[in-house]
Amino acid sequence: MHRLSGAVAGPRPAWPDGIRKESPAAASLADDGWLDTLARDGRVVCPGFLEDRLSDALRQEVYALRNAARLRSARVGRGRERRHDAAERGDRIHWLEGATPAQRELLERLEHLRRVAARGLIPGLFETEAHFALYPPGTGYARHVDAFREGNRRRLSLVLYLNRHWRARDGGELAFYTPQDGADEARELERVRPEAGTLAIFLSQSVPHAVLPTRRWRASIACWMGLRDTASPLDSLERRSTG
Questions:
Q1: For 146-185, how does the pLDDT look when each residue is reduced to its tens digit (9 = 90+)?
Q2: The whole model's pTM is what?
Q3: pLDDT above 50: residue 233
Q4: Secondary structure (3-state) at 14
Q5: What secondary structure letter does DSSP report for 206?
Q6: Is 55 helix (H, G, I), strand (E, B) or coil?
Q7: pLDDT per residue as tens digits for the range 23-62
Q8: What kind and span of H or E run contains 19?
Q9: Which cofactors go with this protein (predicted)?
């Protein structure tokens, strides 16, 4: 698993000129105005964060991994109780290691977002991890939060979509919900279509979400930004299968 990490001292990070020209939507996140929306609503959606060139390259990589049988089924649960449960979570994953030019370019963009978020909203946000997630037809991911209040360093979750020409009838939306409070039922707030280039950002500890059942292969990249890792070697090993 590849992790980008670093301090946040110094001036505000400048978005590379090439990204500013190719993806104005991505460049707009170099400023910290989106953090106000994130703090207020717990989530931000940015269509067009990835331009077609980069999105297509990453999509080709995840399908090449599928064809080479290099994706593995994701697990659910905590610690020693982690298990495979396709009815609850059906994606197949592969951690990004920065092994290709497309991966390195994406990780560079994520690093810029981390630095902006660390300065403006979450002090101590130190590192980023990411994996491909490919959902076969008929699968999804039941409602959950990405980090428990205690014992998990994740603070910011990001999902990037890689699917061209996604139609409403294809399903597979990312659904956001109200936090479940006591006996009250969680209420759906928003659905995000997993169209290529779209980025969703949300708070890991407080925003329930789900992947609704998909009717076609659905490709994405799931990312987390977290505090400095002080976990034990066993915890680190277990975390390799989370997300």
A1: 986 666 789 999 999 999 999 999 999 999 999 876 556 8
A2: 0.84
A3: no
A4: coil
A5: T
A6: helix
A7: 666 666 767 789 999 999 999 999 999 999 999 999 999 9
A8: helix 17-22
A9: L-ascorbate
* Beta carbons within 8 Å of 169's beta carbon, 6+ residues apart: 215
Q: Where do the domains of the chain lie, and which CATH numbers do they carry?
A: 17-76+84-239 (2.60.120.620)
**Other CB atoms within 10 Å distance of the CB of residue 89:** 23
Among residues 93, 175, 92, the alpha carbon closest in space to that of 130 is found at: 93
Tokens of 124: 């101590």
Q: What angle do CA 214, 199, 171 make, to 5 degrees?
A: 15
Asked whether 124 and 164 are in contact (CB, 8 A), the reply is: no
Task: Provide the token pair at 196.
Answer: 């290529």
Could you please report the per-residue DSSP string of 150-205?
SS--EEEEEEEE-BTT--GGGB--EEEEPPP-TTPPP-EEEEE--BTT-EEEEETT
